[in-house]
From TrEMBL:
GO terms for cellular component: cytoplasm. It comes from Skermanella stibiiresistens SB22. Belongs to the heat shock protein 90 family. Keywords: ATP-binding, Chaperone, Cytoplasm, Nucleotide-binding, Stress response. The keyword Disulfide bond does not apply. It is found in: Cytoplasm. The gene is htpG. Pfam families: HATPase_c_3 (PF13589), HSP90 (PF00183). Residues 1-325 are annotated as: A. This is Chaperone protein HtpG. InterPro entries: HATPase_C_sf, HATPase_dom, HSP90_C, Hsp90_fam, Hsp90_N, Ribosomal_Su5_D2-typ_SF. ATP binds at residues 33, 37, 79, 84, 92, 99-100, 121-126, 171, 325. Homodimer. SMART domains: HATPase_c.
Length: 625
């Protein structure tokens, strides 16, 4: 097969320029990234060889090797792991941000400082090699296959793939160093880099060839060592390795469970959102080992989906080495390990949440992962109470985040429910007409903007005997809650009979468009608003389902009118006059469309809305005949 020239699947010239000049504060970390990739390749071969021993039979001692060539100015990072074939090379090395190229490129802003953090979330560690290289050559042969392959690129937009003979199993990455990067040919410099970043790698990292090659690392699994023997920097570098991450861990959990089952866990909570946090598959990225042998990073049931932000390893002493992924799904030992992980993680999060000195730090965690943690409220009944105490919210009663205990402690006299409103963004919710009456009475309303909020609330239903209640539903009885200020005299309601005439007129006009028209207790500044009836679906949930084509049609809404608003009082006077009801028809439709606009719903007939608006404006300006 002749040499094949292909283009990278992204705007590589821009991306690689940022990688080469902005992503890393220290160029030396390119070696950390290449060693980390080599370690993963060896782990995957070791697992595959459990059921297919012939894959590693020709070279069973897995290792990573660094080789320098001063004359050729090359540094080679080689492993005898699982290797790659042509398709793997194109997929893994030819596709930048392979887990979401389009979304990745769309988020790049051109601001190097912001983009650096984003790039670091998308697993582009291999491309750090171009920081120190004019050209990168990859020679690889996949375990179980006979044909080797060569991948070559200068990082400027294209790469070539061709067949290669006499390639050993595994992968060799050959860096053709830039003229001013000769320091990475110095053995002492390489030794210091490996000891700084990769000492925890559980495979020997050798410098040189043949039997005289020197081991540069301890080659012992970090998680097997005692906590008091491990420095914060070692934990951090292991997190970078195991999580393929560039941020620092927000929380480190390292413990050993002993008793009926024995396992060791070294888990990390990131300080930044992983790029795949909201992937539909909701898979975790915790690696499962058995007696220091890597098994899988896709052990379904090891970590619940609502803790999928965790990174790290779990090493079991009791699971059989030859266990398959299918057997793992129903293994009772794995279920016990999972229970232990959940108990420990939630326990440490609770300590953080309850520590006043950690309030700002916990708020950062919640902004990153709160939406994911909420999924546990309807998936994990056993830990629901503990999860509920971990929750934090934006509200009308405080600038920062509040807990449910904070909320209940501030409830007004006569208030018997936890009021909330759901929507797409905080500022729109703060301006919503539905919360006006609550704010006037000093009643705090939780502002919920995560789509998952529509699902956990019906499941949880109440907290400490206080039911959750949406302010966008009808039947909001605020009469028992004393207002903080008495209404001004000019804001008093019109007579009940006159109001009844107006409501009847509007109801007659809008009979086909709304379920009912009612006098509102919740409005203070706006003339009207839409609310859902008590038994109907919440309006925001209905909108979400329609957007995702999960719902056709929908329930009619209730139009509430504010009897103290000047416009409604004037309409009340008009409706009281004999034969005037027909004259408010256009205004009634305009009020309904206004309520729809405020609610974020489309106007069914924009042309009719425009015509009615023009007619009312003409009358208001005295232009109508």
């Amino acid at each position: 097969m002749s040499e094949e020239r292909l283009s990278f699947q992204a705007e590589v010239s821009r991306l690689l320029d940022m990688v080469a000049h902005s992503l890393y504060s220290e160029k030396e970390v390119f070696l950390r990234e290449l060693i980390s990739n080599a370690s993963d390749a060896c782990d995957r071969l070791r697992y595959a060889a459990l059921t297919q021993p012939e894959l590693s039979a020709d070279d069973p001692d897995l290792k990573i090797r660094l080789v320098t060539d001063a004359d050729a100015k090359t540094l080679t990072v080689a492993d005898n792991g699982v290797g790659m074939n042509r398709e793997d090379l194109i997929e893994n090395l030819g596709t930048i941000a392979r887990s979401g190229t389009a979304a990745f490129m769309n988020k790049l802003t051109g601001d190097d400082k912001k983009d650096v953090g984003l790039i670091g979330q998308f697993g582009v560690g291999f491309y750090s090699a171009f920081m120190v290289s004019t050209r990168v050559e990859v020679l690889s042969r996949k375990a179980g296959e006979s044909q080797g392959w060569r991948w070559v690129s200068d990082g400027r937009g294209e790469f070539t793939v061709s067949e290669a003979d006499d390639v050993a199993r595994g992968t060799r990455v050959v860096l053709h160093l830039k003229d001013d990067e000769g320091e990475f040919l110095d053995e002492q410099r390489l030794r210091r880099i490996v000891q700084k970043y990769s000492d925890h790698i559980a495979l020997p990292i050798l410098l040189g060839t043949g039997d005289d090659a020197q081991a540069l690392n301890k080659a012992s699994a970090l998680w097997t060592r005692s906590r008091n023997e491990i420095t914060p920097d070692e934990y951090k570098e292991f997190y970078h390795h195991v999580g393929h991450a560039f941020d620092d861990p927000w929380l480190t959990l390292h413990w050993r469970a002993e008793g009926k089952i024995e396992y060791t866990s070294l888990l990390f909570v990131p300080s930044a959102k992983p790029f795949d946090l909201f992937n539909p598959d909701r898979r975790h990225r915790v690696k499962l080992y058995v007696k220091r042998v890597f098994i899988t990073d896709e052990a379904e049931g090891l970590v619940p989906p609502y803790l999928r932000f965790l990174r790290g390893v779990v090493d079991s002493e009791d699971l059989p080495l030859n266990i398959s992924r299918e057997m793992l799904q129903h293994n009772p030992m794995l279920a016990k390990i999972r229970a232990g992980i959940v108990r420990r993680v939630l326990g440490d999060l609770t300590k953080k949440a309850e520590d006043p000195e950690q309030a700002d730090s916990y708020a950062e965690f919640w902004e990153n992962f709160g939406a994911v943690l909420k999924e546990g409220l309807y998936e994990d009944y056993e830990h629901r109470e503990q999860l509920t105490k971990l929750m934090r919210f934006r509200s009308t009663g405080a600038e920062g985040l509040v807990s449910l205990d904070d909320y209940i402690g501030r409830m007004k006299e006569g208030q018997d429910a936890i009021f909330h409103i759901t929507g797409d963004d905080i500022e729109s919710l703060r301006r919503s007409p539905q919360i006006e009456g609550f704010k006037a009475r000093g009643v705090e309303v939780l502002l919920l903007t995560d789509p998952v909020d529509e699902f956990w609330i019906p499941s949880v239903a109440e907290y400490q005997g206080k039911k959750f209640k949406s302010v966008t539903r009808g039947g909001a009885d605020l009469s028992r809650i004393k207002a903080e200020s008495e209404p001004e005299k000019d804001q008093e309601k019109p007579a009940e009979n006159d109001l009844g005439s107006l409501v009847a007129a509007i109801k007659l006009t809008l009979a086909e468009a709304v379920k009912d028209v009612r006098i509102s207790e919740r409005l203070t500044d706006s003339p009207v608003c839409l609310v859902a009836d008590e038994g109907d679906m919440d309006m925001h949930l209905e909108r979400l389902l329609k957007q995702h084509r999960q719902l056709d049609g929908g329930a009619k809404r209730i139009l509430e009118v504010n009897p103290t608003h000047p416009l409604i009082r004037r309409l009340t006077d008009l409706a009281a006059k004999e034969g005037a009801a027909a004259g408010i028809s256009d205004i009634a439709w305009l009020l309904l469309d206004q309520a729809r606009i405020v609610e974020g719903e489309p106007i069914p007939d924009p042309a009719a809305f425009s015509r009615r608006l023009a007619i009312v404006m003409e009358k208001g300006l005295g232009l109508a005949a």
